[in-house]
């Protein structure tokens, strides 16, 4: 599961600029381009081009049973790729697109099996970033894009994060600056008309329920290839991460090189280094900082990262979900 070496050797220079026309021309030729979104950077290829989609899996070292999200320019594209849109899905799309919401809907035949891992559904979303929306309109075709990180590692929220791990293996990073939300999209599927929450993300459960009514949690935490959703040990730094009260955990690990990841204020302890997610205790700011700070801590020679949970409200729930996954060994 923890394999950080992409299987393709670095072969060419990866461009990094904000040139949408160049990104479009590379994608049309079947190349891969990392795209900015409000959530995290995506590793994009033309969703209807099977060879390009196959390269996404290869570059990420991602197992084929983990399906991809198709990114659309706007909700009117649903008619092209989806068979049926339940009423609450339409209401959610109207309210939150473009935005950090992915809908899992019955797919049409034109979506390659490789994108959906052979499932009868396709995950779709309209990302909220001006460059990527312009790119999608220019292409007039959907982009398949998982987060632009090697499989199992932390998602990238800056162009540099993408270059650090995938530089030389993809044609270009479309530079749209740092991501505004910093957590992946929330994923909603449907059992008939009943919404099911598959992944907590940049849209809080409260925001979703305000539009769709009560939403059942259906967070898949397994490595069962048939279960769509996410695998348990995703979002993991290489350094072991322990979740709890960092000051207490520090006592339990004397003589070790320790780093903390705290919500609002530095905890007491013999720290080598540490990061505070939001001095003003703002979960949205914490979300924006989370993956960058995890990467910064992971780059230090630490034995452990000791992290604390946020209050279980708003984006705090999604942040805690990522921390719990990062803590899985
Ligand atoms: O914010 C995001 O969603 C980012 C940006 C780039 O859009 N993308 C992203 O993609 O996080 P990825 O591949 O890292 O996560 C997509 C998740 C996976 O856990 C996958 O299992 C789930 O979406 N998924 C995709 N298609 C599905 C389907 N048909 N049914 C259920 N889950 C699906
Ligand atoms: Mg991912």
Question: What does this molecule look like?
Answer:
It is a single chain. The protein is of the alpha/beta class. The protein has 2 domains: 203 residues, Alpha-Beta Complex (DHBP synthase); 86 residues, Threonylcarbamoyl-AMP synthase, C-terminal domain (Rossmann fold), CATH 3.40.50.11030. It is built from 11 helices and 15 strands. The strands form 2 sheets. It has an 11-stranded mixed β-sheet with strand order 1-8-2-3-7-4-6-5-9-10-11, sandwiched between helices. Strands 12-15-13-14 form a 4-stranded parallel β-sheet, with helices on both faces. A hairpin with a 6-residue loop joins β2 and β3. The protein is globular, with a radius of gyration of 19 Å. The N and C termini lie close together (10 Å). The chain binds threonylcarbamoyladenylate and magnesium ion. The site of magnesium ion has 3 residues, from loops.
Q: Which ligands, by name, code or SMILES, are bound?
A: threonylcarbamoyladenylate, magnesium ion
By CATH, the architecture of the largest domain is named: Alpha-Beta Complex
The biggest sheet amounts to: 11 strands, mixed
Average pLDDT confidence is: 93
Q: Under CATH, the topology of the largest domain is which?
A: DHBP synthase
Q: What's the count of strands?
A: 15
For CATH, the homologous superfamily of the largest domain is named as DHBP synthase
Summarize the structure.
The protein has 329 residues and is α/β, with parallel strands linked by helices.
């Amino acid at each position: 599961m923890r394999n950080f070496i992409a299987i393709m050797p670095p072969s060419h220079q990866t461009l990094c600029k904000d040139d949408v026309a160049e990104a479009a021309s590379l994608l049309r030729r079947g190349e891969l381009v990392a795209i900015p979104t409000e959530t995290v950077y995506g590793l994009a290829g033309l969703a209807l081009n099977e060879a390009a989609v196959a390269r996404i899996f290869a570059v990420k070292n991602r197992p084929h049973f983990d399906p991809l999200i198709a990114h659309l320019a706007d909700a009117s594209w649903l008619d092209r790729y989806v068979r049926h849109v339940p009423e609450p899905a339409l209401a959610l799309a109207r309210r939150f697109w473009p935005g950090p919401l992915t809908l899992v809907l019955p797919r049409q035949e034109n979506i390659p099996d490789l994108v959906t891992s052979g499932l009868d559904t396709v995950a779709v979303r309209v990302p909220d970033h001006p460059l990527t929306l312009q790119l999608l309109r220019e292409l007039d075709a959907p982009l398949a894009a998982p987060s632009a990180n090697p499989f199992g590692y932390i998602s990238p929220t800056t162009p540099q994060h993408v270059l650090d791990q995938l530089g030389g293996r993809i044609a270009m990073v479309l530079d749209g600056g740092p991501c505004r939300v910093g957590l992946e999209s929330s994923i909603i599927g449907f059992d008939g008309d009943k919404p099911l929450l598959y992944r907590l993300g940049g849209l809080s459960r409260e925001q979703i329920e305000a539009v769709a009514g009560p939403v059942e949690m259906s967070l898949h935490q397994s490595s069962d290839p048939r279960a769509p959703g996410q695998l348990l040990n995703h979002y993991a730094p290489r350094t072991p991460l322990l979740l709890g009260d960092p000051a207490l955990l520090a006592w339990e690990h004397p003589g070790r090189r320790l780093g903390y990841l705290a919500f609002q204020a530095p905890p007491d302890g013999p720290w080598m280094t540490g990061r505070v997610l939001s001095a003003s205790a703002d979960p949205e700011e914490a979300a924006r900082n989370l993956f960058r700070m995890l990467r910064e801590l992971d780059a230090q020679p630490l034995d452990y990262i000791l992290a604390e949970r946020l209050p279980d409200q708003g984006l705090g729930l999604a942040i805690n979900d990522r921390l719990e996954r990062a803590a899985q060994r």
